[in-house]
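Now for a chain:

_____
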Amino acid sequence: MTVVEGELLWEPKQELVNSANISKYISWLEENRGLEFHGYEDLWQWSVENIEKFWESIWAYFEIMSDRPYQYVTDSLEMKPGNHWFVGSRVNWAEHIFRNERKGKEAIYAFSETRARKKCTWDELFSQVRILATNMRGMGVKSGDPVCCLMPNIPETVVAMLATISIGAVWSNAAPEFGVNTILDRFRQIHPKWLFIVDGYKFGGKSYDRIQDFIKIVNELSGSLTQVVFLSYLGDDKDCPSNNFVSWSDVVSGEDPGADGFQFERVEHNHPLWILFSSGTTGLPKAIVHSHVGALVEVLKTNSLHVDLSSEDTCFFYTTTGWMMFNMLVGTMLTGASIVLFDGNPAYPKRDVLWEVAAQTKATLFGASPTYVKVMEQLGVEPKTIDDFTSLRTVICSGSPATPETFDWFYKNLHPDIWVTSQSGGTEIAGSFVGGVPILPVYAGEIQCCCLGMDIDSWDQDGNRLTDEVGELVCKKPFPSMPLHFLGDEGDKRYNTSYFSEYSGVWTHGDVVKINNRGGVYIYGRSDSTLNRFGVRIGTSEIYRVVENIPEVVDSLVVCLELSGGKYFMPMFLQIPDGLELTDELKNRVANELRVNCSPRHVPDKFYAVEEIPYTLTGKKLEVPVRKILLGASIDKAVGKDSMRNPDSLAYYVNLSNRLKDD
């Protein structure tokens, strides 16, 4: 039986509602602020109508540690770049993680293709962070200095990140599998003082030695670098490849000053915390700078009130260090939760390896992208055959739009009493615009709510509010985790163009969204890849949901080309299994499924068979670059190939573009 969008899949038991963090917060507001709320929607409405009072309550509720009281919550309620939050405060993001230290309790579980399973307790983690941070200070790293990292999803990366942040230096990471140009496009913008590197990584059982590539990167960054820290990771205990490098073992050795002897660097409200990057599919990736105070209050709010995490939780989100979800996974530790790290192929050496890891660690939260779910479905993986997963209570889908079938897969393959949710926001805001809350029901494909303090709406092109119709996701009021700025963006020109050019004084996020009467949210894809056909906006995920349910379709991609004279051409590209052909019968069946389940407007003008669909390194389909190529742009102008998982797949679209010109 096919699940229907909006179908009720789960309702929270009263016991969960009573014990949820958000219920405790509501009780705290009643006791300490004299406020009373009738359900989540009532609370959300108050939070967006009273922005300053809401964020002040978050500061007080989570007992944010500051050298001195802030003077005011924000200097402006105008939605624009440059707002200041909790002005006068001095905080440190990492310090708030280590107030959760519990001696002997596991903080990190680590799995990798390269090493045996490892554990790290809270006291061991804090000790390593203190030693590294003390050595960094002793070797000249100061507050505000940029520190970059090319290490995989392993405990050492967490240690390096927290040590950097604890002394007020500015953190930025990229994955070691990134291409040289992709890394340089990021790190050249930062001018790092320190760089952490490994010798390579393993993926799918194969070793990838990257040391020569990384030496090239070091040479390119030599103008700013004062130190390179080298970790031998591939298993053969290599010596430092250069006398100018220092080994990881050296920088984490020495006397631990102890908790009483270590001083966190508390920094001003607008002090940079980390630099995150947009995917960089076209042009240089945006170097997005966030503040300690903004990311602190946002990540605490999201992980506690929306994701319902506490010190009793163990969080496992499959990610690489090249995706902002690595930062967010470490951020779950702000609630006292333990984390699970996995470095390697999510289907190697066994197709269900991630589920074995979740079972072994008794993970309470499992997170992955909808793309991973599709792979599991194609491979026939059924997690419930591995474990009963009674410890697992929360599943989060993030990275791309989650379909009703994505939600349904978890309920069928885990157990019926699980909270499956999705969220959207990401790199630009170090958090979520829309997400989950454990006191509301789960409907198929529906993100449960707009997040607290986020004044979210769906607008048409004229700025009119839409309900139960597809529109543009906008945020109408400012929030603390807005970027401080983009590096190299004089006068905030790129910042303004990216988010404030569509509607004056309103953040336009670039998502195609539908918000229903109960406040539930559907994300249908990126608005810059929206299919605007005969004046009707169509989200690409609406089409993928139907097409990729057909057994003969492995994957798909659709774009819409605007032609002269107001005409449109909407081709669809289908990846089908080896040995099968794209027959007229299959084309007709795909078209009919779209016509019946969506509308005649959703039916492409033509179908093409391709060997593979192009993806970014973070698993997003390259709809916009493909569209640009088909309209005549060169590959170099359309996409940064080093940001791609499979750049050779673009050759097909270049050839097709030439054929279309001839036609």
